[in-house]
């Protein structure tokens, strides 16, 4: 039996390059990409995607939709790393740790949509608490996140590593219209009744994310505390290989969060901080925006789908 043919469409971008790097030495698959001269040839791209077993799309949203529309071979399975299909019916959300049954859903799916980098942290924190009833669906959620500049793709890398890098900003908050495309994805998959306020930013480091969600205990049930929130997350991720919840004593001893702490891995660390005097809690997620936030997650989903084929 020949090794499954995996086609990366868009391997020249930041996510595609990282996926290719993670897969290039694998012997259980045959990895395929298009030559530079063929990447914009619609006919050649359609031939390639219809000839593969699993296609990984690392494309802008419009191009990802075009690639999917070009599929006529019903045997082709897809992992889409763009945001084109993250809230679309018929697509399985590729966050294996989201629910106990999610790995099997991903493994058997024909169409898997890779989570966004920021939503991975936000949903990872919020969905278990929502499901457990510790956070009401109508709670006014606000999210702040800082990503490495690679989150902007090649434009961000060029700005900070190219000829004009000396003029690159050290820090910039964006999305000030509060209309970021990740907000509907977070609302849908975290189970929120209302759209969250989401404020993203870029720092002058290449990769890594720190994402935080503040909570006011006065707006929650009297029996909800930092300890109950931490315990809920710890239970939910007890058997997860790539999502880890900091014990309360470790969080209590922490004085800062380093967005680069898990770079180069597919891991995510969740923590719960609190100030009992003021009744304030801070939920946090730290992970690599190119790891668990993109390429690492795609490879994790690919492994689940390959295991299902055997």
UniProtKB/TrEMBL annotation:
Main location, first listed in the record: cytoplasm
EC class: oxidoreductase
Annotated catalysed reactions: N-acetyl-L-glutamate 5-semialdehyde + phosphate + NADP(+) = N-acetyl-L-glutamyl 5-phosphate + NADPH + H(+)
Residue ranges occupied by any Semialdehyde dehydrogenase NAD-binding domain in the UniProt entry: 5-109
Record GO biological process: L-arginine biosynthetic process
Entries under Gene3D superfamilies matching the protein: Dihydrodipicolinate Reductase, domain 2, NAD(P)-binding Rossmann-like Domain
One of the record's GO molecular function terms: NAD binding
EC number: 1.2.1.38
Highest rank taxon of the organism: Bacteria
Protein's cellular compartments: Cytoplasm
GO cellular component: cytoplasm
Catalytic residues identified in the record: 117
Pathway entry: Amino-acid biosynthesis; L-arginine biosynthesis; N(2)-acetyl-L-ornithine from L-glutamate: step 3/4
Role summary: Catalyzes the NADPH-dependent reduction of N-acetyl-5-glutamyl phosphate to yield N-acetyl-L-glutamate 5-semialdehyde.
Similarity comment: Belongs to the NAGSA dehydrogenase family. Type 2 subfamily.
Name assigned to this protein: N-acetyl-gamma-glutamyl-phosphate reductase
Gene that this sequence comes from: argC
């Amino acid at each position: 039996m020949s090794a499954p043919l995996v086609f990366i469409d868009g391997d020249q971008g930041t996510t595609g390059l990282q996926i290719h790097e993670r897969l290039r030495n694998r012997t259980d698959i045959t990895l395929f990409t298009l030559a530079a001269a063929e990447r914009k040839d619609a006919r050649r791209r359609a031939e390639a995607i219809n000839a593969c077993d699993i296609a990984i799309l690392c494309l802008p949203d419009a191009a990802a939709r075009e690639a999917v529309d070009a599929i006529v071979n019903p045997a082709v399975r897809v992992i889409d790393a763009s945001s084109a299909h993250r809230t679309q019916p018929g697509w399985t959300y590729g966050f294996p740790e989201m629910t106990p049954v999610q790995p099997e859903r991903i493994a058997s799916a024909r169409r898997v949509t890779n989570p966004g980098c920021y939503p991975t942290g936000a949903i990872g924190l919020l969905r278990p608490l929502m499901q457990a009833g510790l956070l009401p669906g109508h709670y006014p959620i606000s999210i702040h996140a800082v990503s490495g500049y690679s989150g902007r793709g090649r434009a961000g890398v060029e700005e900070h590593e190219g000829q004009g890098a000396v003029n690159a900003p050290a820090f910039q908050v964006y999305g000030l219209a509060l209309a970021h495309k990740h907000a509907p994805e977070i609302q849908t998959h975290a189970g929120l009744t209302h759209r969250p306020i989401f404020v993203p930013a870029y720092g002058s480091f290449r990769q890594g994310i720190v994402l935080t969600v503040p909570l006011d205990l006065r707006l929650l049930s009297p029996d909800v505390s930092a300890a109950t929130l931490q315990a809920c997350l710890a239970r939910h991720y007890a058997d997860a290989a790539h999502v880890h919840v900091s014990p309360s004593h470790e969080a209590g001893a922490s004085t800062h969060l380093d967005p680069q702490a898990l770079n180069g891995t597919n891991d995510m660390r969740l923590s719960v901080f609190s100030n009992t005097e003021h009744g304030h809690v801070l939920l946090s997620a730290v992970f690599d925006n190119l790891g668990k936030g993109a390429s690492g997650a795609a490879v994790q989903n690919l492994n689940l789908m390959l295991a299902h084929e055997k």
